[in-house]
Design brief:
230 residues, alpha+beta, five-stranded antiparallel beta sheet, globular
Length: 230
Amino acid sequence: MTASAASMTARLIFKLSLSNQEELVDLGNLWCLDKGFVAPRFYLVGKLNTARALPFDPFRSVVRSMWRISSPVEVQARNDQFIFTFSNGDVIRVKKGGPWGYQRAMLLLNDYDGFSDIMVSLLDFVWIWVEIQNLSAAITTSVTTKLVSETIGPVLQVDNLDINHGLVRVRLTLPLNDIVRLDRRIRVSPIDVITVKFKYDRLKRGAASDSMASSSVMGELEMASEAEEA
């Protein structure tokens, strides 16, 4: 083979290689539930907030009893994280019932679409119910409740049914490293300032007597279920 022929062959191989690397097969939009492309399932991503190495199989075996659900849950380990796959609405119970724990380690959870890279999912917070106390009757509405609650964390849900009975409850997101706020002074008009109190569903008793707890959320919250090995 001559030098020029060898050079042409090398250039051709390079172009073919480059073409293969850049080739993209477009399947369109697969996010269509009615076309059967996407499995009708629900997902959560999570991890145990501990430096201890806990065996996976014992943890997987107690997940259903920890969450007190009867339907099967698929648990996959991905490094130090987990993907939980549900076939029904049990995922709602899990999200509303925590915080959860296993062998004295808090289980941190977040929503997951079943497709994205789980390593980018934030797992530095808990979902928790909080009762708002001392809110004036005239401003006890869903809108005001949400506004006041957002001074301590992003609100996920306002319990409108309880508001109608005089009980103001919200489910919100609390960052693990934030302090546990038990009260806050809030200006509600040019001349009116009220002090609202926050009663967390799973706050340890020792912090409840302070006007503001100095420790973090992680240090003050009890877990809804403390599962041990089966």
